[in-house]
Structures are given as structure tokens and as C-alpha cells.
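User: Batch of two.

Assistant: Item 1 of 2:
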Amino acid sequence: MWKNRRRIVALLGGAAVLLLPFLRIRGRSAARFDLPTLSLHFFGAVVPIDEFYLVLLGALFLVALTLWVTVVFGRLWCGWLCPQTVIRETGEWIASALPARYRRGGKTLLLLPFSALVSLSLLWYFLPPAEATRDLFRSPVLLGFFLSQWGVIYIMVAIVGPRFCKTACPYAMLQNVLSDRETLAVAYDPARPECLRCDGCIRACPVGIDIRVGVQRECIACASCIDACREATAGPGIAPFIAYRGTVLRGKAYLFAGGCLAAALVLLAAAWSRPDVRFAVQWEGKAGERRGNVYRYSVRNDSDQPVALALSVERPARLLDDPEVAVPPRGRVTGTLTVQGRNGTPEEILFTAEGRGFRIVRKAAFP
């Protein structure tokens, strides 16, 4: 039964989302936007906020991936992985173990702790899980975010439910643009007019549509109607009238897969080319009586090891401050340097930051 397969996928997906913030790689969370440092932690990599072009490239890859999946598999996301569908149906699944007269109320009650857990897990993607849970009732801001998210999530899964899928879901509208006759979708076989007319598919559909009249935007591809049709046709011993239909391997799918691969290669190339140590310098002002100019420098170390480097300037300019700089792992050091040019006049200066295994040259000029 497709229902059992969907439950397995839902449980695995839910477990991955809940446990991912607890997974640590190289001593850091596997997935979190760290608010204190304003940096993105992603499977061992750290992307500071001034390198968010990588996040934009990652978003471009996700857009390309979404387009490819939608063209090939239709609204499979909606019925199998969408949190709104998964949370609601998990509550129904557990409530089905209760006596029949308690199931409706039991589902409503179960969705309350489920929504709270989802709301709390969202906080874990911005603060360490232990810290977020410990400070939940100590910080008014944190508690406010938690309660607001809890309320919105509960309203979406318990009250709005499938009505959102039928009316306002932007992904459903995107599906209308991208899908074609070969996109994988739940469909009725119009070549077989001998439908049993049991209407089991309509009763099983969470969005209340009749799949027999054709593929519709409201369908979330959950396959509940396939299971209902299979049960109805098992007695007479005939094949179900409803099934997943479509062509996965085709020209359009290859085209979108190529775009997805190109976006992934651009992202990997950008991430691979990032230097571990970066050095920037700019003129800040005149040094006054010392007849020189003051330059502000910044050195950032994105590696997991401390870095020691020496700063120097091209002759005939002369550096008047200590050139040694030490930067901790994943740290940043800023400071000022006083540089005296030829006869004390301001001029273009070449700065060099040199350490073990790297040499960076930057140009700074009097504006």
C-alpha cells in the first residue's frame, strides 16, 4: 500500500529534520545559521555573512532542483514530504489507534505537541539545541518566536489543512506552469470505462477531488485514491483504475537536469575556490606628526588552525608598527598600521600578508 510507503518516508524525513541540528561535524552543527557569529554552518563548512553569495548560489541550485523535480515527478513533494501533509497525517495515523469516537478529538490534541516540537526544532536551526531549549522560558524574545511559530503551525495543519493546498499554495500554481502530459502524476485510466463507481477514491482524497475527471491542480499526489481503488478492485480481481502515470526519462527531464547540474557545479566551484585566509586593507587617515598615513587592515581565518602572518609594505614606504598578526581558527583580527612614504608624502602602497603556505598582496591608495 502506498500509505505505508509514505509513512516510512515521512518518519525518515521527520527524523532527519529533527536530528540534523544535533549532528556535529568538525565540532560544529551540521546545519544552522549561527546568530551570535552571523555565519551559516553547513556540514562542516562555515559561511560568514559577508560571503552570502554562496548562499545565493545554493538557493539558485535549490531552485533548479525544484524545477527539475517538479517537471519530472510533479507534486510528489506535496504528498510525501511537505510538513503540512506529513504532520497532519502523522497525527491521524497515531489517532487511528484510539477508539473510533475519540479519533477526531485525539488527532486535534496530538497536533498540539507535534506543532510545538516543530516550532522548537525551527529554533534549533538558529541557536544550539541545548541553549535554545534551556533558555526558552528565560528569554522573552525566544519564547515569543516559539509561541508565534507554534500558533501558525497549528493553525496551518489543524484548521486550514488541505484548503491551503487547494487555494493558496504557490507550489501548486508552479506545477500548472511546469507540468505536461508526461509529468508523473496520479491519474485515472480513461481507456477503461468499466469503473466500479464506488466513489472510494473521492472519500479517501484529503483534498476532496474526483481524480476520475482528469489531473487537477488540487491533487497532492498522495496516492490515497490508488490505495482505495486497489481495495475496491481486489474483490472482483481486476487491476486498479488509478495509478501513478508518466514518463521519467525524456528530453525535457534531461534539459532541466542539465540546468540543475550546472548550478551545482557553479556552487561547488565557488565553494572550492574560497581561500582559507583573506586580507583586506584601506586608507583611514593621516598620522599627523609622524608624517605618515594610517591604514586599517582586516585578516580573517576560515580554517580550523590558527594562523600567524607578517605584514609588510613595498619599499620605499616604511611600516612603523608591529607587523606580526596572529588569527585564531575561524576568527577575524582587525587593526591599524602607520605607513611612512617617501619624504612623508601619501602615495599608493602595496601591502603583503605572508604566512605559512600563503602570500596575499593588496593595494591601498590615498583617496
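Item 2 of 2:
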Amino acid sequence: MKKSLIILVLLLSGCTAREYKIDTTEIESAVQEYLDENLKDIEADVDININELNDLMTGLIKEVDKSVIGVVNYNAVDQPNGTGSGVVYKCEDDYYYAITNHHVVEASSRLEVYFVDKSFVEAELVGVDSDTDLAVIKFKNDSNLVETSNFGDAKELIRGQLVIAVGSPSGFTYFNSATMGIVSGIDRFVGIKDTDDDGIDDVFVKMLQHDAAINPGNSGGPLFNMEGEIVGINSLKLVSDQIEGMGFSIPVDITLRVIEDLEEYGEVKRARLGVWIGDVRFWEEAPVDLDRGCYVSDIVLGGPVDTTSDLEIGDIIVGFEDQNIDGLSQLKDLLFQYHPGETVKIRYYREGEYFITTVVLGEM
């Protein structure tokens, strides 16, 4: 009898859970066993000073701890819908601004943010973007319980680098728990929304995959690099009896793009090309010598491509600005980095030749 693999995408908002005691000697033993196992085949002479590593980790957690907050979503009858996490990234005009997940604040009548001493204040919603599962909130606080954290550089992210997740899994009983892991993968396109209710996700977001432990309640909490910079916002993980350690964070480049628009407009202004496109890998009429790119199946009359470019139906887009295009998800991700009204350069293939055109982007 065949066993079916069931994979759940778990959004990481959640509630409280039972307390249990942790045996620190078992943790120390497990860490040592891990180091022994993973360092035994390294030929280079590696000098590991456990005390220095301990100082680095504890200093890092202390540095970022006050920037991580708890978020409570209350419904219309003033009952908690759920809890999540967030991270404060700036203070301006007496307001602290924090980024969290859209699903943490969704359908809220009011919001509260909690601090390390379990005190709380009410927060205001600045704006949300469901397509990236991000939201910005702001609040006032005149105590010394809040600090800000800086954003890292998405271009410096590499597979294998150490990262730390901070948040409140299973509610505030475990407020600002910290877990460590590595970046497992970059540019993972994960489905987060089914807009036509056909059971198949049709909204995909570029994610950062990592194996730092995250659980319900970690939603909206930050993923830090070893410099204490925000490199991702934890959003979901894959759940299955046959899957372990697959967490996903919204990477810093997408986060910054969303923050910029939410602060200015209260929503994200998305650029559009005005075309219907598909992945060339799944196109039966694709040229035999071309296995990457996006084919143009139709063009919107009066749209940006129709009025400002040389693209035609049947052309295959193989480059966007300075990036080669492998498929549809990548093209959408690159387009998201630009604003309506900007002019972009597109490289395309037509009847055995390559051409370059420009497009003035429209607004969705």
C-alpha cells in the first residue's frame, strides 16, 4: 500500500501551550555531539573557543531583544483572535514602527503590542499587503523597553550562514524565544494564497528557507544574521510527518519594498506590464533551442507593453534589466522591485534572434 505524503503550509500565528522544563545538560550534550559530528571531516585546523562563541551569541540576543515585540489581534467583541510577533525597525515622530505578518493582524478590530516585561500598549495599523503576507504597525512608548534593529543586505545572504529566529512560539509564555539555524535555501518560491478557491495556490512569494526552529506564534518575528541585522520576517513552515526543519521567511529585499509603500500610501503600488505570460518550459510551441524565459501569450490593448514597447505576441522574454529570466516566478519577483512609471529594459527572443526594448511600467 502506497503512503501518501501530506504537506501542510502552517502560518505561524498561534496561542499558548503547556509549560515544560528543559534539561540544559541534555542541550549541552546535544550541541557537543552536533559539533563533533559535523566538524570531524574538516581537514583544516579549526580552533573553536566555546567561551567566545557563547559571548557572541548571548551578546547578540541581548542586542536585538528589545526590538522584538509580541502582537495580539482582537476581534470585534474584543476577544483575542491570536498572537504573533513583530520587529521594530525605526522610531519617528514619537512613534515606533514595526513589521509583522498580514495574517497576524488580519480581521482585527484593535491591536496590542507586548514588551519584554509583559507590559503592553495599543498599536495602530499603518497598512497591509496580503500578497506578501506583510503588515506595518506603529505605537507610542516612552519607556526604555523598545529599541530598533537594522535591516541587512539581501545580496549578502548565502546558503549555510548562521541565522537566529526570535519570537513568541505558542504565545507569550515563551516570549522572545531564540533559536539558531542556517540559511538552507535562497529564492524559494512558495505559494501563500489561493485567490480563486480551486485548492491550488496561485500567489507565490519569494522566500528565504532556513532550519531555525519556528512555531505558531513566531509569525512576523525577525530572522537575524550574526551581525544582529534583520534578514527575513518569519511567515510559515512546512508541516508533515516526513518533513522537519523547513521554515520560511520573507526576505529583506521584499520586506523593504513593502515597508516603503505601506508607510507612504498604506498599500503596495505594484507595477504591471500589461501582458499575459507563461513559463516557456511548459509551452508546447517553444523553440527547441530555448528552455528558459517567459512567452507572451497575449497583450492588453492600450497597456504599457502595447503602447510603449516593441514586444509582440509569441515573443519570449529572456532578460529583465540586467537579469536573465528563467521563468515566470522570477520575472514577477523582479517586476515587484520596480514602481509604476519607471522605465525598464527587456531582452526578448523572436524567430531565432534576440532584441532589446524598453517598457514604461503601468500600475495594477
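The helical segments are 24-39, 50-64, 102-105, 252-265, 304-308, 328-336.
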